[in-house]
Design goal:
The protein has ten helices and 13 strands. The chain is of the alpha/beta class and 334 residues long.
Length: 334
């Protein structure tokens, strides 16, 4: 897909902030695009009619989907995150506006987080820290990750990075995607239609899917009941992939072994949620992807795509708006 700049100095609207910051280095593009920063509905409504590009810097903001009907000249939306669920609507999907995302920036960081979460469970680190706080010396045997099985639900770039990391530790990995195929990092990838049959085989179930109408609520009471009583669920995708009430019930009844959750149905996680105090749960505040320098990496990725757009070249990381994610692995145009 090629998006051509519609005017000599097109308008770029930056929506929101990350960690209280604008995109690092944004001043470097002001000679080529007219930059407008907005944080409120009224501000967006005032500048969107003339905007050619929207950078959804706050990837969780829903402002654009609410005011998309005002976008007369919009040609390209870039979401500074892997998931595009905050922006995708039927109107945007049906339009000729190109949507790109931050695919590739977070692969290694999320893979490292998943490995860390699995090691916390396998090596009983939560108990070790609790005992340390009480100055209690209690020797225990712990698990080896080598030889255990992990079901990685979501076989995109992040899922493959997780597969590579776990494979190096001797974990037997199976990927799950929309269709069956062979993958160099995950081996035989199974169809999501086989998920229920695969769940009873896994020691760890790792969710790394985007949120779409097909994936919302895909892990519910039935799926949790199919898992081993010793299995752990790890969710680094979206909170809405899981029926949170059903998960809490399964954890309270010990019908599964535990959960490591980086995403939740409501964020921040409400203080009254029982997930905070469960001994078999890791609560992580949606930070599995973030590393020192992540804002700079996101900004540089956008500036690279902006250079391509201004030069009339093919954009990278173009989202298939019917699927809700980047599909396939086309070679980028030079």
């Amino acid at each position: 897909m090629i998006a051509y700049p519609p005017e000599p100095r097109p308008s770029l609207v930056v929506v929101g902030e990350l960690d209280g910051r604008m995109p690092p280095g944004i001043e470097s593009v002001t000679d080529r695009v007219m930059v407008r920063s907005v944080r409120t509905p009224s501000a967006l409504a005032g500048v969107l009619p003339d905007a050619s590009i929207v950078l959804l810097w706050d990837f969780s903001s829903t402002l654009l989907r609410e005011y998309f009907h005002l976008a007369r000249n919009l040609r390209w939306v870039h979401v500074a995150g892997a998931g595009v669920d905050a922006v995708m609507t039927a109107d945007i999907a049906a339009s000729d506006v190109a949507v790109t995302n931050a695919r590739g920036v977070f692969n290694r960081s999320i893979a490292e987080t998943v490995v860390a979460m699995m090691l916390v469970f396998a090596k009983d680190i939560l108990t070790t820290l609790a005992l340390q706080a009480r100055r209690s010396w209690l020797h225990r045997d712990t698990e080896m990750l080598a030889g255990q099985t992990a079901l990685i639900v979501g076989a995109g770039e992040i899922g493959r990075a997780i597969g590579r990391a776990l494979g190096a530790l001797g974990v037997e990995v199976t990927g799950v995607a929309t269709s069956e195929r062979h993958d160099r990092d995950l081996g035989r990838v199974r169809s999501v239609e086989e998920l229920d049959a695969l769940l009873p085989t896994a020691d760890f179930v790792v969710l790394v899917l985007p949120l779409t109408h097909l994936t919302r609520g895909m892990i519910g009471t039935k799926q949790l009941a199919l898992m081993k009583t010793t299995a752990r669920l790890i969710n680094v995708g979206r909170g809405q992939l899981v029926d949170e009430g059903a998960l809490i019930a399964a954890l309270q009844s010990r019908s599964i072994g535990g959960a490591a959750l980086d995403v939740f149905q409501t964020e921040p996680l409400p203080p009254q949620s029982p997930l905070w105090t469960m001994p078999n749960v890791i609560v992580s505040p949606h930070m599995s992807a973030d590393f020192h320098g992540w804002l700079e990496a996101l900004a540089e990725q956008f500036y690279d795509n902006l250079d391509r757009w201004l030069g009339g070249r093919t954009l990278l990381n173009v989202v298939d708006k019917k699927l809700g994610y980047v599909s396939g692995h086309p070679a980028p145009e030079a």
